[in-house]
Design a protein that fits this description.
The complex is a heterotrimer of chains A (328), B (265) and C (272). Chain A has helices at residues 22-31, 64-71, 93-97, 116-126, 131-145, 160-172, 190-207, 218-224, 242-249, 294-304, 317-327; strands spanning 3-18, 34-49, 53-57, 79-84, 100-104, 178-182, 210-214, 227-232, 235-241, 252-259, 273-279, 282-288, 307-313. Chain A has 328 residues and is an alpha/beta fold. The chains are: A alpha/beta (328), B mainly alpha (265), C mainly alpha (272). At the B-C interface, helix 2 and helix 8 of B face helix 2 and helix 10 of C.
């Protein structure tokens, strides 16, 4: 099996100091601070194969960034093991990080006051990329990310979208085999998001790049990821293809019917369908698709009520995720 | 209105208490400054040095201890506050708040000063008393005059700080000019070497500048270098400086405000 | 080995070039420093002169000797400020998680911390240092022999290492406390009062502390005392300071580096 990343029983515990409230609390924590143990990651296991694009998602505080930090060697786990390309980042950090590219959407690694190209030159030296390989790599990146437009502009003058393109290029200059993206599209406009998603897909297709993406933007997930790992409270709660997760978590669909005129008795006799909402002449029926088909339901309805318009809503990733957060 | 100012001052006190570690280090920093100047004066007087001086070594030790204590006490962050807010472009938003901006900054600094009475001045003073004996005033009257004179000193220091902070409204690119003022103040306030030890021409010039009325005036009163009438006269000069600086600040502030509101910061 | 050295040198030179370029982006910003730093130090030595002329030499040091010491201490401070300024902001880097990025690069973290900013603005501190030291040399009749120059270089190197060690050790405290901004200010002020004023002003307990526990005395006081043939206050040491200062510098630097590594381990186990 060609797993690029293997995580087994990963646990990370923290000690957190608690602050008291008000003047009395301040004085108390001044004299004797209280500490409590918090388990940010509580036994996570998964493995990621080369060439996968995996969405690593979960609500705030679920343990996403703690996991990412352990995968990239920034943090050492309390227990459990991490292997990236067969190497433990805790044992040989320098060997592992040479194969990684990491982009934090909220924090740039580019020099604020200098033209973008200067940051690239520094990275060229840090990663010991020889001139020819660097030129080739930069040419490919420029082509996809259109860096030529702003490579000589000081980073502080770049738009957020341009800066993010610069950050992506900076993370890819040394041709890493795994790319970690932490909220890569945060705060970007639709065009910039599109460009960045296009880039990730292209790199995945052309170079077989493995991508791990944490995000709150479920459009990112839908458009990019073949697989989702969902965490909550430090544990993996779902792991699998997106469609399977949606089907499993949201067995319901919605049928929205718009009536010709107000009616008294809207109830259907079928036990698998119920009214969930009603607004004027619009009625929302929720039904389980395993027990009744949309066609049957529509037939029933049109026999009984004066219907003007009908539409069926498929649950999307957002409903599925909300379901996960609710139930775990 | 007063409630709001009190709240600002209280919050300052609270945040200052939170930083246990910084609290300890700031005491030690002030302690080092105090020890260094006390030891220098002791070395200057050792073995019969300064025999012709009107002031004894004990007077100068008391002077140095009180000077360091005042240094820890007189919190004037206003110049840095304005500079930072200007740099971050925040001042325009602050101007739209219902509370007068400078009043808010003053309340903030006074809160800082109140908390440093507890946090800094008292521990420092106790340390000093332990090492060098209690640095008492020359007589009860000196103490009675010293306290109002200190308040006047703080007035001058705060106004100077606010005025220098105003520079940021026009020439922010030059960096924080407050640092430059602080260096000049350190010399010409007499905080370390009293101006009366300096050569005559320096003393003459200094008498017409506000700086020596910040530290040297109250400290000279405390150790009894000046008589009651002279002390009252010095305090009158302090009051005149406060009036002058306050007028100047009001004028500059009015211009700064118009400039910012028109240009939007 | 040689390849590694070349790698690090190439990165260090690029870091230095970028640091200079970044500082040149805001040239006017220098004005306040150009006004403040020289004023601060020239008035500092002037005040000592006022005291000495009015009273007597301080702890056996007359004005020319005080000037020599003041200048020597200030030069090593200036060099430190140029090359090790990043050790002053370890706390901010811990709080903001800036070590994350350094850990993500295949290089030594300590190297990246120190090399990533060459603060050429620190030369502003060196200028009054050199002027005051030169004046001190003139007043004391210091002889510029080859041996004296060699000694001076060793002393400056050692002194800078001792200072750097102190700031690295203090900065590393931030790995545990998360805050040490105030400690840096404390150390800067303490160093100013103990390397630019004669240590013999202070009580023996303090002198011993600043000699054996925190070797600040080796930065400029003992070297200056020996250069000028003065009594160094009673703590007699065998051998020449020209050997002691660099040796103490290297040892303290290694100890401080060890503490930094412990701190990094803590960072890696707790994050920011």
């Amino acid at each position: 099996m060609n797993a690029v990343i293997e995580v087994k029983d990963l646990v990370k515990e923290y000690m957190i100091a608690k602050k008291g409230r008000g003047l009395r609390g301040s004085i108390r924590s001044l004299l004797m601070p209280k500490k409590t143990k918090v388990c940010a990651v509580d036994g996570i296991s998964f493995s990621i194969a080369a060439g996968e694009i995996v969405g690593y998602i979960g609500p705030n505080g679920a343990g996403k960034s703690t996991t990412i930090k352990m995968l990239t060697g920034i943090l050492h786990p309390t227990s459990g093991s991490v292997r990236v390309c067969g190497i433990s980042p805790q044992e040989d950090r320098k060997a592992v990080v040479g194969k990684l590219g990491v982009v934090f959407g909220q924090r740039t690694q580019l020099y604020w006051d200098l033209r973008l190209g200067e940051s690239f030159e520094l990275l060229r030296r840090i990663y010991q990329i020889d001139k020819a390989a660097y030129e080739a790599s930069l040419a490919v990146l420029s082509d996809v990310l259109k860096l030529d437009e702003f490579i000589d502009t000081p980073v502080r003058q770049l738009s957020l979208g341009q800066r993010m393109r610069g950050d992506l290029a900076a993370a890819m200059l040394h041709e890493p085999s795994v790319l970690f993206l932490d909220e890569p599209t945060i705060g970007l406009d639709a065009d910039a998001k599109h460009a960045i998603r296009g880039f990730i897909k292209e790199m995945n297709r052309e170079r077989g790049l493995t991508v791990i993406l944490t995000t709150h933007d479920l459009d990112d997930v839908e458009q990019l990821c073949s697989r989702l790992v969902v965490v909550n409270h430090g544990r993996v709660v779902e792991d699998g293809p997106i469609d399977a997760i949606i089907a499993k978590l949201t067995p319901h669909r919605l049928l929205v019917a718009e009536l010709e005129r107000p009616c008294e008795d809207l109830d259907l006799d079928h036990p698998a369908a119920t009214i969930v909402r009603q607004e004027g002449l619009k009625v929302w029926y929720q039904f389980e698709k395993s027990r009744i088909t949309a066609a049957e339901l529509i037939a029933d309805l049109s026999g009984k009520l004066p219907i003007r318009d009908l539409s069926v809503k498929e649950p999307d990733i957002e409903d599925a995720i909300r379901e996960v957060y609710k139930t775990t | 209105m007063l409630q709001a100012y009190l709240y600002i001052a209280k919050m300052k006190l609270l945040t200052n208490l939170t930083y246990r570690f910084e609290w300890l280090t700031s005491i030690f920093t002030n302690l080092i400054l105090m020890l260094a100047s006390v030891f220098i004066w002791q070395a200057a007087y050792r073995g019969g040095g300064g025999a012709g001086e009107a002031l004894s070594v004990d007077d100068m030790v008391t002077y140095s201890i009180l000077s360091s204590t005042l240094g820890a006490l007189f919190v004037c962050n206003v110049q840095d506050t304005i500079y930072v807010k200007m740099r971050e472009g925040q001042i325009a938003t602050d101007l739209y708040r219902p509370l007068p901006l400078l009043g808010g900054y003053l309340a903030d600094d006074i809160g800082g000063m109140l908390s440093s009475i507890l946090n800094n001045a008292i521990p420092l003073f106790l340390f000093a008393a332990l090492f060098f004996g209690f640095p008492g005033p020359a007589d009860p009257l000196s103490l009675a005059l010293f306290i109002p004179s200190c308040l006047l000193s703080y007035g001058i220091l705060w106004l100077l700080s606010a005025l220098v902070g105003m520079v940021a409204f026009w020439v922010m690119e030059l960096g924080n000019m407050g640092m430059v003022k602080d260096v000049i103040l350190r010399v010409l306030s007499g905080a370390f070497v009293p101006i009366w030890f300096f050569p005559g021409p320096v003393q003459t010039v200094s008498a017409f500048l506000p700086f020596q009325y910040t530290y040297q005036t109250p400290l000279g009163i405390y150790i009894g270098r000046v008589g009651t009438y002279e002390a009252l006269g010095d305090m009158a000069v302090q009051a005149v400086w406060i009036a002058l600086l306050a007028l100047l600040l009001a004028a500059v502030w009015r211009r700064a405000k118009t400039k910012t509101l028109i240009q939007g910061g | 080995m040689i390849a590694t050295l070349r790698h690090y040198l190439s990165v260090a030179s690029c870091f230095a070039r970028l640091a200079v370029q970044r500082q040149l982006e805001y040239p006017l910003f220098l004005v306040s420093w150009l006004l403040m730093i020289p004023t601060s130090y020239f008035t500092g030595i002037w005040m000592l002169r006022v005291i000495v002329e009015r009273f007597q030499p301080l702890g056996g040091w007359d004005f020319p000797e005080l000037t020599f010491l003041y200048g020597l201490g200030l030069i090593s401070h200036g060099i430190l400020v140029v090359f090790f300024i990043n050790t002053w902001s370890i706390d901010r880097k811990v709080i903001n998680g800036e070590f994350d990025r350094l850990l993500l690069r295949p290089m030594n973290v300590f190297f990246q911390l120190v090399a990533s900013y060459v603060n050429f603005i620190g030369l502003i501190d060196c200028i009054p240092g050199i002027v005051i030291f030169a004046y001190g040399c003139y007043l004391t009749g210091f002889e510029w022999t080859a041996a004296a120059i060699a000694k001076l270089i060793l002393v400056l190197l050692g002194g800078v290492l001792i200072r750097a060690a102190l700031f690295i050790a203090l900065g590393s405290i931030a790995f545990w406390t998360k805050r040490n901004g105030a400690v840096v200010g404390f150390a800067v002020i303490t160093l100013e009062r103990t390397t630019m004023y004669p240590l013999s002003l202070y009580p023996y307990a303090l002198q011993s502390l600043l000699t054996f526990l925190i070797p600040i005395g080796f930065i400029s006081f003992y070297p200056a005392a020996e250069f000028l043939g003065l009594d160094d206050g009673g703590l007699e040491l065998p051998l020449s300071f020209a050997l002691w200062t660099p040796a103490v510098g290297i040892v303290s630097f290694f100890l401080a580096h060890g503490l930094f590594r412990l701190g990094m381990r803590k960072y890696e186990s707790a994050g920011s």
